[in-house]
Amino acid sequence: MTKNIGIVLFDGVEELDAIGPWEVLSTWTHHFPDDGYAVSCVSRSGGPVLCAKGLVVQAHRSFDDAPPLDVLVHPGGHGVRPLVQDDDWLNWVRRQRDVVPLMTSVCTGSLVYAAAGLLSHRPATTHWASLDWLTTLDPTIDVRREERFVDDGDIITASGVSAGIDMALHLISRLAGVDRAREIRRYIQYDPAPPV
């Protein structure tokens, strides 16, 4: 039986927060279907989503018609600001926590998890510019300021933007093994060497 990974989309989502993990995870699921995973994008109502910098992307499914998820990826971006005060959104996130075995976030997506109460008394991270906001939302969070991503078992939070790629490769390592993650890393030629 196929296991489902859902990447959440919303207006104002940071492009790379969503598309980076999509690239990693969809490369994996397309090249290794026998591993038993599928990935899709979900949004509140389905349909097109306007990202933070103007890219328009199409969600595959709405929240209501998405398959049961085994992994949820919640990106960040400027669109998170209204979501941390959106009771309907936060309640949806809490309902996912009740049924989804592994919740992950990228960048300020962890702020949504914090606002929903998912990170209470747990280690977590977010984009460097929002680390204090994470503490403000829930002072019990053990904020990891220097870590690229934090794996706390059933919740993984990644720091800013490009860290979603690292987190997605780590996710493959957890779900299908280190060798598979290395194959995908090589295939997408992800070997950061900053120019400055």
TrEMBL record:
<dbReference type="GO" id="GO:0006355">
    <property type="term" value="P:regulation of DNA-templated transcription"/>
</dbReference>
<feature type="domain" description="DJ-1/PfpI">
    <location>
        <begin position="4"/>
        <end position="173"/>
    </location>
</feature>
<dbReference type="InterPro" id="IPR002818">
    <property type="entry name" value="DJ-1/PfpI"/>
</dbReference>
<dbReference type="InterPro" id="IPR052158">
    <property type="entry name" value="INH-QAR"/>
</dbReference>
<protein>
    <submittedName>
        <fullName>Putative transcription regulator, AraC family protein</fullName>
    </submittedName>
</protein>
<dbReference type="Pfam" id="PF01965">
    <property type="entry name" value="DJ-1_PfpI"/>
</dbReference>
<dbReference type="InterPro" id="IPR029062">
    <property type="entry name" value="Class_I_gatase-like"/>
</dbReference>
